[in-house]
Amino acid sequence: MPITDFLMKNAQTHPDEIALVEVNPGLREARGVTWREYELVETNPAKKYRRTMTWKVFNDRANRFAHLLIDQGVKRGDKVAVLLMNCLDWLPIYFGVLKAGAIVVPLNYRYSSDEIKYCVELADVSTIVFGFEFIGRMEALVGQLPGVDRAYYVGDEDTCPSFADSYAMRIRHFTTEDPGIDLDDDDLAAIYFSSGTTGFPKAILHKHRALMRAAITEQKHHSQTRDDCFLLIPPLYHTGAKMHWFGSLVSCSRAVILRGVRPEWILRTVSEEGCTIVWLLVPWAQDILDAIEDGTLSLSDYRLDQWRLMHIGAQPVPHSLIERWRRYFPHHEYDTNYGLSEGIGPGSVHLGVGNIDHVGAIGVPGYGWQAEVRMDDGTCVEPGSGEVGELCLKGDGVMVGYYKNPEATAETLRDGWLYTGDMAEIDADGFIWLVDRKKDVIISGGENLYPVQIEDFIRTNPKVKDVAVIGIPNERLGEIACAVVEAKPGEELTEDEMQQFCLALPRYKRPRRYIFADVPRNPTGKIEKPLLRKRYGAERLVERENKE
Length: 548
Description:
Structural class: alpha/beta
């Protein structure tokens, strides 16, 4: 059964019920309007603080876009990239691509033009859909993407660039009838991007079967019903937020897309929209708690009794954070989710709402999943033994493979098992605990940072002899990037100088700490990062990110 069947069913059984709400508090504050002054479905979306979409309109728009793609020559198996900030149009476009029988390719909205080009070419994208925020980056690529023959712009028609067609203007001419493309579980559905320590994205190919596994697993884990309302904050290009929203799709329940992460905005939206389920990243949860404790927020100002579940993921969750959270929200169910894009996102391992006594563990195999921790010789770690091995997963959510990369696929998929690269142990109760990562990826606030990319840039500084970027502990973000910089003989470097130099990097890639020291390498020339992590991570450096 393809995931699109759920959308069709919801549109048929509850056509006039609200499926999606988009809330943009920044726009409200900029315009000085009341919380609910704007509440419209269609026209001029850029000027609306709060927009809603029914299940029927959702399905109709997906059908219209599917017909547009088919009319323009998009065939089964063609790739359509989506480059949008979170917005009301994101999911209808995603489902429109699926309904056309094409493969949807979400792109990270932080990608530079060069990264967009790399991913579009790697995935053989022929059509791209982009929003207002990406006009400059897309304009820089005009004439450089010979495989892309169609581009659709999502935004006001009067801001549509000359090299693209207006999405809104084009889809209105097509029927709302289902396009009638037969899909089954074994049809290819999506390509998501991930990266290893090299920093070069790999294209992860999934079938419809994987999307369905994500949907069913999410609904089983968190028991969504039509009475629930899910607050969706993380980016939809990633498997995390979207696969959690799939639980709302299965249960035909409302979801709110919040454009912003300020603590006040989160609590205000939970209160005003009646949200019952919220998925947070560690920094956002910490910001909420800090605001409560310093008096910036007062819980009595909000209606929060209906909020039943807070779940969290994308990075290790400090036990102290959950202890603090439960002091202020003692009635909340709590869950943590482990996942990776190769396993269609969160849910392959989860703590479970009844296992608060095991906070710190990532949990047990998720619904429909198998999990083992294996030693290098293939034997399984015994629960309670204290032995560490590699976490391996098996289930319908495992990827088909890395697109056009058979070598990496063979290394990661073995006998139907996905080798995650994460090192773990199992306690006597069968709960899995992460120990370390084989890969050097730094997870900072739920975002992956790739050290090699940062290192390559820093090495362009004429005073730098060598550099190694590692992750060090951070109370709020889980980890931050630390650059261990070795200056050339006779040269001196300061932290201020390096900070100024790294302003050319995107903000999220800039190191937050600099250590000036020799960079150790082993006899084969590889940087000894485990040694550096032991040397500097043992200091348990705890910093707080500067407030915006």
